[in-house]
Specification:
Layout (H helix, E strand, L loop, with lengths): L1 H5 L6 E9 L2 E9 L2 H6 L1 H10 L11 E3 L5
Antiparallel strand pairs: 1-2, 1-3
Length: about 70
């Protein structure tokens, strides 16, 4: 089990946020490359991914953030 903890991060972390734009579902993906874990540490990378903010703006269309499972 100690070997597993010391393995380098090889897969990116992708965060998904869903929005309803003009009545249609739009899914945004934010991807953190695995190389970032080497630079800032795996724990910091997970913290960043959990706290990422995604915002959509439109002058002409109503945008609503969707809750998980909608």
């Amino acid at each position: 089990m100690a070997d597993e903890a010391s393995k380098p991060m090889v897969a990116p972390i992708t965060v998904e946020r869903s929005f309803r734009v003009g009545g249609k579902k739009v899914v945004c993906h934010v991807t953190f490359p695995a190389a970032i874990a080497k630079e800032i540490g795996l724990e910091n990378m997970y913290l960043c991914a959990q706290r990422v903010l995604v915002r959509l703006d439109s002058k002409d269309t109503k945008i609503q953030e969707m809750k998980l499972g909608e």
